[in-house]
Amino acid sequence: xxxxxxxxxxxxxxxxxxxxxxxxxxxxxxxxxxxxxxxxxxxxxxxxxxxxxxxxxxxxxxxxxxxxxxxxxxxxxxxxxxxxxxxxxxxxxxxxxxxxxxxxxxxxxxxxxxxxxxxxxxxxxxxxxxxxxxxxxxxxxxxxxxxxxxxxxxxxxxxxxxxxxxxxxxxxxxxxxxxxxxxxxxxxxxxxxxxxxxxxxxxxxxxxxxxxxxxxxxxxxxxxxxxxxxxxxxxxxxxxxxxxxxxxxxxxxxxxxxxxxxxxxxxxxxxxxxxxxxxxxxxxxxxxxxxxxxxxxxxxxxxxxxxxxxxxxxxxxxxxxxxxxxxxxxxxxxxxxxxxxxxxxxxxxxxxxxxxxxxxxxxxxxxxxx
Length: 370
Prior knowledge:
This protein is an alpha/beta fold and about 375 residues long. Helices cover about 35% and strands about 20% of the residues.
């Protein structure tokens, strides 16, 4: 295949409502020249699952990453998914290298955990949380992870690298602290999105012939209620452990409260009763056994507990001392945050080729085999 110059930007939580609410003339121009469509993200609609899906071009049933946190059923021990230990599929960087389809490959993320998960096959790998001296010297010091500025720094690092090293295949993923704290119409959100647009516009001006895709891993919604499924089941004398899929070390983003959870039962004999109990619980919108969830959402059946639950638009799941409590935050993980845009610029693909955000990676991989 003829070598292409490709850049993929995943704006964390960069759903249509955020793009629409802000002044984004450069991305709008890209959409007018190329295309703008809305597609599905992968469920559960969380960072790890969707970034890995895009970078491998596969669903979790293939790549194996089903959450931000893994509970070992045999030992009862939990592990944050922060490296490639659980990754079962090759990255687009590895495939491009194997096919000699990219002179250099590069990965840019804000969070170190994503770097460790996704960096296989990269020549350049930068996490804004802990950049090298080269990038600090070139771009300047980095602001904290809980800021707008870290995303600006990250895109500046991409801009610098494209000019200095001209890698053939580049993936960039920002962080969603702003979207967790601010709704689309709020001032800081609008400033944040407009600044991202400005830097992306400069990148396009520097690289007018580069094939560029902009998408998101998930959306974001206001939440007012929290449920602990294990505490709900405890009321009916069913012993279980519930893990909110969003659970990670970045608690300031979301307090480990998200719209999807895996439920691990102590006794399999309780499965049907537990499913029916959770279905009858206000705030829980969908309940599936592990085999049904794996089939419906293309999840890896060994890594999703016994029951998969999805919340309604206003509800999140967490580890609580009580079955229910009131909350006030913005979060994601459910079906309600699973619709995202794709902007394609200089793309050889047609709009009809895309149904999911991961199709960006999938189509690139397929074209490498031609």
